[in-house]
């Protein structure tokens, strides 16, 4: 089974790369990209801003139990959207929907239930299925920069006015709305924000997630 999964994964990645379907900001589980390339691009954003004598704000987000929360129906819609159809598409549907579970408590065993969410961790395909799931997280982001490493997400924007702060907040709300629409949640304890460069006293670092305070 593992060998077949590797063949399927190799063909899916080849297809995604050749058809230019990978999110350009995604650095996780993508050939030629890594945490280093994500950091390098982020640092380049910062250095460019510093050289201009302005400021860049970055908000760090992290999904809670990201791999476990992936809804199968939504994922399969995105698999089709990425033009993964035919035999591989049907096999992926069976791969996800054929999984069952039961719970044992106090010596009692529950009835068998279908697994309705989560990419099967420990499988070869888990990572590629997850990056397909999250590939459109920044689709409606208008003017900010989004960098990803799997579910580790950071959104940045140069800040020179109150309008820039408003636009960054709007883009942050877009990502938060995406999470709600896709039945995923952010880790409440891992929302962070950081500022680099010339920070005017009148432009406070106070972005929020849907009217809730951030660190």
Would you report the number of β strands?
A: 8
| Strand numbers in spatial order across the main sheet | 6-7-1-8
Supply the helix-strand structural class: alpha+beta
Helical fraction: 25-40%
What is the string of helix and strand elements? HHEHHEEEEHEEHE
* SS summary, helix count: 6
Kindly provide the radius of gyration, computed on alpha-carbon positions and rounded to a whole number of angstroms: 20 Å
Shape: globular
Unreliable stretches covering 5 or more consecutive residues: 211-215
State mean pLDDT (0 to 100 scale): 89
Strand content: 15-25%
Span of the ends, CA to CA: 45 Å
The major pleated sheet works out as: 4 strands, antiparallel
Which terms summarize this structure?
16% strand, alpha+beta, 8 strands, 6 helices, globular, four-stranded antiparallel beta sheet, 215 residues, DNA/RNA_pol_sf, two-stranded antiparallel ribbon
Tell me about this structure.
The chain has 215 residues and is of the alpha+beta class. It is 39% helix and 16% strand. The chain is built from 6 helices and 8 strands, in the order H-H-E-H-H-E-E-E-E-H-E-E-H-E. The strands form 3 sheets. Strands 6-7-1-8 form a 4-stranded antiparallel β-sheet, with helices on both faces. Strands 2-5 form a two-stranded antiparallel ribbon. Strands 3-4 form a two-stranded antiparallel ribbon. Strand 3 and strand 4 form a beta hairpin. Helix 3 crosses helix 5. It starts with a helix and ends in an 18-residue tail after the last strand. The C terminus is likely disordered. Pfam families: RVT_1. This is Reverse transcriptase domain-containing protein.
